Amino acid sequence: MRHDVLVEVRLRPGIADPQGATIERALPALGFSGVEGVRVGKAIRFTVEAPDEAAARELAAKMADRLLANPVIEDAEITVLGAKDDTAKDDTAKGAKAGGAR
Amino acid sequence: MSTRIGVVVFPGSNCEHDVVRALQVVGGAEAELLWHGDDRVGDVDAVVLPGGFAHGDYLRPGAIARFSPVMAAIARYAADGGPVVGICNGFQVLTEAGLLPGALQKNAGLRFLCTTVPVTVSSTRSVLTAGVADGTELQLPINHFEGNYTCDDRTLAQLRDEDRVVLRYARNPNGSVDDIAGVCNEAGNVVGLMPHPERACDPLTGATDGTALLRGLVDAASRTLTRPG
């Protein structure tokens, strides 16, 4: 199964976020008042081959630990958005090829 | 045999020749470039990780560089007591590699800083600062967007207790905790700093205060036994 994964990397609570602070200061200039707590992070999306959702989540957590986030300043939240089995993917590939031949 | 200092080149490094040139000015050591893709550091007596944008700073500064083959060799070299100095981006690489504690965040105020700042030597127990009197103020160039040193309270207390904050900004330019401009590891042989001492080694460029730091490195390298990488 290929799982569609979203890893959201965020600055840990208490770590200053100069980008968030700058955006928060800019919003009122455009008329958006009352906005507080702006925090800027990264969204990293990919698909990964894994037997089930739990395994996909575990793989993503390892990736976050080793590379995607810096644990000194960042946390990572992992969401498995859905899964697609490989046969469906093969059908798509065939379809694309047939389309190319036409 | 003369003292040799290896200067690591990652794709995107851009201060390696400045370091080589500054070491020529300081004298007492031969500088050679080391390629990031090699899994050894060779017969060098010290290693410098220069400034720049290793691997484009993609994901985070230093995040990809820490997986370059040379980094495993540098970790072994550092564990054996070899002098290792990371300047600017090199400092960021050393923190990502876990050879130094903490992390370098975007500057408070979100400005890229390119200026010369007063920096105070606050510990002489590192290979870079061993030859400079505690409390000496140096004028050193900084050139960074992510120089805001951050660590948890426990790490900060440890750094202070063990006298491992080697340089402090006299006027904090980037929001670094405790005005930290440079730190070293427990043994003092691995040092990271955001200012560029190699850019302050020639009167032509306006300052020579970096010479004292690089001379300390050359002296430390001269004391290092040449070891196989």
As an assembly, this protein is heterodimer
CATH superfamily of chain A: Phosphoribosylformylglycinamidine synthase subunit PurS
The helix/strand order of chain A is EHEHEH
Contiguous uncertain segments of 5+ residues of chain B: none
> Would you tell me the overall average pLDDT of chain B?
95
Total number of β-strand segments of chain B?
11
Report, as a whole number of angstroms, the end-to-end distance of chain A. 30 Å
Overall geometry of chain B comes to globular
Order of helices and strands of chain B: EHEEHEHEEEEHEEEH
**What is the SS-derived class of chain A?**
alpha+beta
Do you know the CATH architecture of chain A?
2-Layer Sandwich
Q: Which superfamily, in CATH terms, is the homologous superfamily of chain B?
A: Class I glutamine amidotransferase (GATase) domain
Number of DSSP helical runs of chain A: 3
CATH class identity of chain B: Alpha Beta
Word description of this protein:
The complex is a heterodimer of chains A (102) and B (229). With 102 residues, chain A is an alpha+beta fold. Chain A has one domain (2-95): Mth169, Chain: A (2-Layer Sandwich), CATH 3.30.1280.10. Chain A has helices at residues 18-26, 53-68, 86-101, and strands spanning 2-11, 42-49, 74-84. Chain A has a three-stranded antiparallel sheet. The longest helix of chain A has 16 residues, at 53-68. Chain A is elongated. The two termini of chain A are 30 Å apart. Chain B has 229 residues and is of the alpha/beta class. Chain B has helices at residues 16-26, 69-79, 89-96, 153-161, 210-223; strands spanning 4-9, 30-35, 46-49, 84-87, 103-105, 113-121, 137-144, 148-150, 165-169, 180-184, 190-193. In chain B, helix 1 links the parallel strand 1 and strand 2 (30-35). In chain B, helix 1 (16-26) packs across helix 5 (210-223). The longest helix of chain B has 14 residues, at 210-223. The relative contact order of chain B is 0.20. The chains are: A alpha+beta (102), B alpha/beta (229). The interface between A and B is medium-sized, with 11 and 20 residues.
